[in-house]
Amino acid sequence: MKSFRRHSATVNAGSMADIAFLLLIFFLVTTTISADKGILRQLPGDCPPNEDCTKNIKERNLLHINLNSNQEIMVENNVVKLEEVEQLVKDFVDNNGSANCDYCEGLQLLESSEHPKNAVISLSHDALTKYELFIKVQDEITKAYYDLRKRYIQQKFKKSPHEVSNEELEIVKKAYPFIVSEVMVKPN
């Protein structure tokens, strides 16, 4: 009688390395790698010829925000929390100190800006300020302007910010221009 011995089945793995290599090449070729875009800021253009671009700004139209080396946020030399920055910027920009802004809802304080078109945010930071804090403060300033512009769009055009045309958006940007001066304070 014959004995039936079963041999274990084997898989020919000789070409596995070739297949893995081809799959690796396939995924490298077909995968898209996202590129970081960085911070989206539009730099000011060159000064037009025969024009003075170094105009004096009244002190009341300038909101000083300073980030020191202790990672503290100081607005007009008062230490504030990050969560307070947005409202402080809104109150300053929308103040209507000259009482000639028909769309402003500010308290017309004598120490805040005359008009949103004159308001300048001066953001200065120490060389030892952490990048994360600097970006967070910039975000709070941007949110303040976004909220002011959003309210203006709803009042004037009866639309949401995503529904306005490019021409309407330009009108909004002129009503609430985003003017921020960023300066690094060098250590002594």
From TrEMBL:
It is a single-pass membrane protein; Single-pass type II membrane protein. It holds the Pfam family ExbD. InterPro entries: ExbD. Keywords: Cell membrane, Membrane, Protein transport, Transmembrane, Transmembrane helix, Transport. Signal peptide: none annotated. It is found in: Cell membrane. It comes from the Bacteria. Belongs to the ExbD/TolR family. This is ExbD/TolR family protein. It comes from Winogradskyella pulchriflava.
